[in-house]
Design a protein that fits this description.
Number of strands: 15
CATH superfamily of the largest domain: Type I PLP-dependent aspartate aminotransferase-like (Major domain)
Number of domains: 2
Distance between the termini: 44 Å
Shape: globular
Strand order of the largest sheet: 4-10-9-8-7-5-6
CATH architecture of the largest domain: 3-Layer(aba) Sandwich
CATH topology of the largest domain: Aspartate Aminotransferase, domain 2
Structural class: alpha/beta
Helix content: 40-55%
């Protein structure tokens, strides 16, 4: 194989080529052998409107025929990028007001970190540079974003520089709460741990805290009651900015337009990507508050220019697709639509939750995680085995350790939801049965 595949064992890929996907229809994709799969994770959390939306294709075609490319450097910009900025600005949670564009969630996080450092320099706080990120966090695989990511596979062999990153505990109530500890008490403990970390390392050296409103690739971890209020209180006391990473949760996934609205978060900066274009074009954005923008703008004026940006940031075709995606989301009344789908999913998840191999089931909006017990004979391989079995039955899930992630397109219907969860249940039965047989053999 000529391609070096991301997040894949290259030697294994030489021995068994990755499944080649050739077309998509609705929530389904088809491989080069003609097999169809319901994609229960919308690709990489991103194909919110399925895989063949005619309106998005038409929007791209119109823009390609009008202006196929232009940049936003040195006093010029595509007019449609300005239109997207005005439209997005009307949707952003307070106090966000200004935007800069990129091409991926990873580069959005890199940009957010650079903006934070630029901002702190602008206000005469050059020592305030460290970033607090959480255990289990995923924030991308770029030069800076990989350092914020807590996954070893993004660090091993790359000499990733993460010396400016401090780690605090993840908000995983099911796995990390103490016996008898309530969600509220757990949230307060995590906030106290953050406060202690900041005091130990000196708030004068810490620029920002970064977190997803609900963690995605870290295991579909939903914050416990009171968590974000407690965290924001600590950050405000120590003059530390909050970066909300909405790469996954943005544009309806959590049941509101943004996860910040779902959880009452008022960020200083916010990253967006994935569902901004419903995955039909690589586009990302970083939103910032007026206060951050003003400090950055004045500093750039003193220096003569703002020396950051990407060749394809604000790409006119990406902007056109994003505008059409936003129009579709508005027409479907996105929060209400996602709430209806979540309500359809709930009874199926309740049945899965009763399975003896399942430890926890959690959902917000149309984002769910089924955490399997890790005390079976299959151990850490349990989740992978279940997902492999489901693929054989025609549904693509994502394993995150022993968590099965569920994040389907918003175009999914009730019959497809039933099929998706039925396959998950059947796969659990099959793999758990194999695990029980293995346990019996080992015990004999």
């Amino acid at each position: 194989m000529s391609q070096l595949y991301p997040f894949t064992d290259p030697v294994a890929a030489q021995q068994r080529a990755p499944t080649a996907i050739v077309r998509g229809q609705g929530c389904f994709v088809e491989d080069d052998t003609g097999r169809r799969y319901l994609d229960a994770v919308a690709g990489l959390w991103c194909a919110a409107l399925g895989f063949d939306d005619a309106r998005l294709t038409a929007a791209a075609t119109r823009q390609y025929e009008t202006l196929a490319y232009y940049h936003s450097f040195m006093g010029r910009t595509p007019a449609i990028a300005n239109q997207l900025s005005e439209r997005l600005g009307s949707l952003l949670p307070a106090p966000l007001s200004h935007l800069i564009y990129g091409c991926s969630g990873s580069d959005a996080v890199d940009t957010a970190v650079k903006l934070v450092r630029y901002y702190q320099n602008a206000r005469g706080r050059p020592d305030k540079k460290r970033i607090v990120a959480r255990e289990g966090a995923y924030h991308g695989s770029g030069a800076l974003s990989a350092g914020l990511t807590a996954m070893a596979y993004c660090h091993d062999g790359f000499d990733v520089r993460d010396g400016g990153v401090l780690r605090t505990g993840r908000p995983h109530y099911y796995a990390d709460a103490q016996p008898g500890e309530s969600e509220v008490a757990f949230a307060k403990r995590r906030a106290k741990e953050l406060d202690a970390l900041i005091r130990t390392h000196d708030a004068g050296t810490i620029a920002a805290f970064i977190g997803e409103p609900a963690m995605g690739a870290g295991g579909v971890i939903l914050p416990p009651d009171g968590y974000w209020a407690e965290i924001q209180d600590v950050l405000a006391r120590h003059d530390i900015l909050l970066i909300a990473d909405e790469t996954i949760t943005g544009f309806g996934r959590s049941g509101e337009w943004f996860g910040c609205q779902t959880y009452g978060i008022s960020p200083d900066l916010m990253t967006m990507a994935k569902q901004l274009s419903a995955a039909y074009f690589p586009i990302s954005a970083v939103a910032m508050s007026a206060a951050v923008h003003q400090a950055v703008a004045q500093q750039a004026h003193r220096l003569g220019t703002f020396g950051h940006g990407f060749t394809y940031g604000g790409h006119p075709v990406g902007a056109a697709i994003a505008l059409e995606a936003l129009a579709i989301y508005e027409e479907m009344d996105l929060p209400a639509h996602v709430s209806r789908l979540g309500a359809l999913l709930d009874p199926h998840l309740e049945r899965i939750a009763s399975h003896p191999a399942v430890g926890d089931v959690r959902r917000v909006g149309l984002l769910a995680g089924v955490e399997l017990r890790d005390d079976t004979a299959l151990g850490a391989e349990f989740g992978r085995r279940v997902v492999d079995e489901a693929e054989r039955r025609g549904v693509l899930f994502r394993p995150i350790g022993n968590v099965v992630a569920i994040s389907p397109p918003y175009t999914i219907g009730s019959d497809e939801i039933a099929f998706m969860i039925r396959v998950l249940g059947e796969s659990l039965d099959t793999v758990a049965g194999a695990g029980a047989a293995l346990a019996a053999v080992l015990a004999s």
